[in-house]
Amino acid sequence: MSVAVVNIKTIPDVEGGRKLYKLHDLSDKEVANVMFYKRRQETENSEFLRLHLHRICSIAITVRDDSDFRYISLGDEASSEAELIQALYDAIDHYRPTLLSWDGSNFDLPVLHYRSLVHGLTAPAYWSEDDEAISPDLKDMLAGFSPDADVPLDEFACLLGFPGAMLISADKVWDTYRHAGLQQLRDACVSEALNTYLVYLRFQLFLGQLNQHQYDTECQLVRFSLEQAQSTPANEFLSAWSV
What we know:
Elements: E1 3-12, H1 14-21, H2 28-43, E2 54-64, E3 69-73, H3 81-95, E4 98-100, H4 104-119, H5 124-127, H6 138-142, H7 153-159, H8 173-180, H9 182-207, H10 212-229, H11 232-240
Helix pairs in contact: 1-2, 3-4, 8-9, 9-10, 9-11, 10-11
């Protein structure tokens, strides 16, 4: 059986904002500002948009099957949102994994569901009752399903010796996208998926599903895979990973 971590990065769905709020004469930046303003009015202090108004701009997965470990940044900078989501569903259909996430039940998966319907996509393998694809959420499990007990991935991963500080917080994604471009978000998406998988390995050690030797071997497999990849996100992750 394979295990996969899924992570997404999102930006405001400015086309959706134009449609909903009749803002056809405004720029993307201006439409996003209106969307944030309306959200602040609803919540009094938060600009975090409702999930159906997020547009997925990056998806990264890690996959551990019987033979190997790999990370995959789906699509490329020119891929549409629909292409990214379909690539994820194709990967699920291929690997038939148990999906893991960090805060996936509250964010990643609902966003995927809403955006899939927006684009009219189909994903029968994802919803099959015979699969275990609906995701265990590590954040929820570690917090005992108490919202008051959850912790941010970047800080917790850092405490465990992983490169949590490389992550981009949700409130910085839009500014990063506008000023630094999509590649930085794609790299951060990979980093978050890798951190989540490594936290999962530590959790498996805690549960007794892995002994210390097995845990060390799994971590070394991740290191080896990143060394072989010779990509920017892999090299940066390795450089920041404590020995």
